[in-house]
Write a structure and sequence with these properties.
about 200 residues, alpha/beta, Metallo-beta-lactamase, Chain A, 6-stranded mixed sheet, globular
Length: about 200
């Protein structure tokens, strides 16, 4: 398993490429902008893109999706249903832009070569926020950051819900690499010990 990251767009959203190197297949997670740059990286990787996976529907995580969909018509695009239809806000631009959007939810799994990607519904930043778990890695989107959590004052946000999601993530057995939607990476043990929001959540 290999994970590459690039910061895209004006606020540096982390776009991740999860790849099974043996099977030469990949998933692109949160392509927030700069489609041409993402396409160039994938050409060098020489891997078939099987999925475009979205941790939530905000524009800074989805802007490149329409252009990538044209380039990779075979790639299945997944988003949680709660964010798929626009959620009543211009923050969620995919509604009506991309045909064939698929939805995933809590407990769903997607095969990627020898890997299995598991979907954890972790609302709070948005109603349809998810965390994607693959082996010892958590792609947490804007739910959990290194030392912080996502804002909850936007459409569909809820501080109580994000605390419940953080408690759920903190309660996962074992340690994981935390790969968030913005900023640097961390580990789940680090966040359990030092992240004030996760500590608040786990104390409840």
């Amino acid at each position: 398993m290999k994970v590459n990251v690039m910061q895209v767009g004006p606020i540096g959203t982390n776009c991740y490429i999860l790849e099974d190197e043996q099977a030469h297949v990949a998933a692109v997670i949160d392509p927030g902008d700069e489609a041409e740059r993402i396409l160039s990286v994938m050409e060098k990787e020489d891997a078939q893109v099987e999925y475009i996976l979205l941790t939530h529907g905000h524009y800074d995580h989805t802007t490149a999706v329409p252009q990538l969909h044209e380039a990779w018509p075979q790639a299945k695009i997944y988003i949680h249903q709660a964010d798929a239809n626009g959620a009543g806000s211009r923050l969620f631009p995919l509604a009506g832009q991309v045909e064939g959007l698929l939805t995933y939810d809590e407990g769903d799994t997607l095969p990627l070569g020898s890997l299995t990607i598991e979907v954890l519904h972790t609302p709070g930043h948005s109603k349809g926020s998810v965390t994607l778990k693959a082996a010892d890695v958590l792609f947490t989107g804007d739910t959990l950051f290194a030392g912080d959590c996502g804002r909850t004052d936007l459409a569909g946000g809820s501080y109580e819900e994000i605390l419940s999601s953080l408690k759920r993530l903190g309660g996962l057995e074992g340690n994981f690499h935390v790969l968030p939607g913005h900023g640097g990476t961390s580990t789940l043990d680090q966040e359990r010990r030092f992240n004030p929001y996760m500590r608040e959540a786990m104390s409840r």
